Give the backbone structure.
Amino acid sequence: MKFLFVGTNPEHTGAATHFVALAQALVGAGHDVSVVACPGGLIEEELLHVGVHLHQATFRNAFDLRGYARVWSAAQRSRPDWLVGNFGKEYWPLIILGRLLHIPVALFRHRVPPMKRLSGYWLPRLAHRFFVVSNWARQACLARGVPPDRVQVLYNPVNMALYTPDAGKRSAILRALDIDDDAIVLGYCGRMHAGKGIFTLYAAVTAAMARQPRLHCLWLGDGQDAQAVRDYAAAQPSGGRHHFLGWVNHIQPYYTAMSMLAFPSIAPETFGRASVEAQAAGVPVLGSSLGGVPETLDPGFTGVLLPPGDVAAWREAILQMCDASRRLPMGAAARDYVREHFSTDVIAAEFVRILMAPKETRATDLMYRPGPPRKRHSHP
């Protein structure tokens, strides 16, 4: 099949990472992929050398005629079977261009906050396929009146080759941070604001550090509350075991340095890509039991689900995960779990299957269903 992906957002976001991974997956599966991307942006940078046909453009908003012209030109050259969009400002342009060019359109919605009333009603109905990235997000769409047959679920794909565990990289990163090789490292990746649960995590891990001297916390991210966490850490005796690296665009190497990942959000998340990426690197996850996060792990076998905002529960879970006999089997199971349910080849195949389904196919038959669980082994 031929695809034209349109994503002119220059920022490093989960939607951009999804865009890149899905485009790469389709190329790897033998499909012809063209991409309209922002010059010098993350998407163009990541797709320069992977067999994608790149076109440059920028949509300032849904009325940007120059953006329309660039996409029209790219479509005329590539003659795609599908137009694919990931970003809100390009939804309406793709719907309009798809109608004019007689090309079906697939749209992805990565956020749960409702769109404006007109868009929320018409876009899922006008797109030939309208995807969300978790069953929880699908239920939110249905609650707003979107017909069940107009919204499908397709999880975020992860390129397993980018998240291979590497003991050498782990040692190098730990040495650079002046952390001993035998340290137990809890990692956090993402925006640093209260809704992400960073204050719960800070309180829980600091309390756990008082009982586990080998425990360190690696903070990868920035945001409006980042300085507050740094200030709290600086005032504690264990402050030197909190390591703040700021925002990092390419975080793949840092997963290798982690013993576990925390995903402590107290506001619902649509999915939880960092959870899946960490597991792909063989890192078990402590995640909040709300929103789409529970769909990213196998509780009790690749990680643990915890009540959001419960400092005591998070402290005890962190301490339990410090036990290598519990942590290491979970990490090994996590990588296999992601390979079976979220790897690029699996998600690309599901994407194509859903696109190729005949119009009369029932919505329930279009839904992505992960395969059966792996044979499980109990942990001590």
User: Anything to note?
Assistant: The chain has two domains: 2-157+343-366, 161-340. Confidence is low (pLDDT under 50) at residues 371-380.
